[in-house]
Amino acid sequence: MKELVEVIAKALVSNPDEVVVTEREDDKGIVIELKVAKSDMGKVIGKQGRIAKAIRSVVKAAASKEEKKVIVDILQ
Fold this sequence. Notes:
Elements: H1 2-12, E1 20-26, E2 29-35, H2 41-45, H3 50-65, E3 70-75
Parallel strand pairs: 2-3
Antiparallel strand pairs: 1-2
């Protein structure tokens, strides 16, 4: 899942080398944290959060094949 989020994020931003994706597991499931440059934040979130929602949907679909619960957090 981590690699999927990383590939999507790097395709969207102007500074792909500043994309940092971390993955950790807690009681809710797998939490994937995405950090991008401040100037690229709008590109990852999109108008009214549409791109962020699309990223979460793609990851959720991929996770459902493995029967896992995945949460994607976009951090500053």
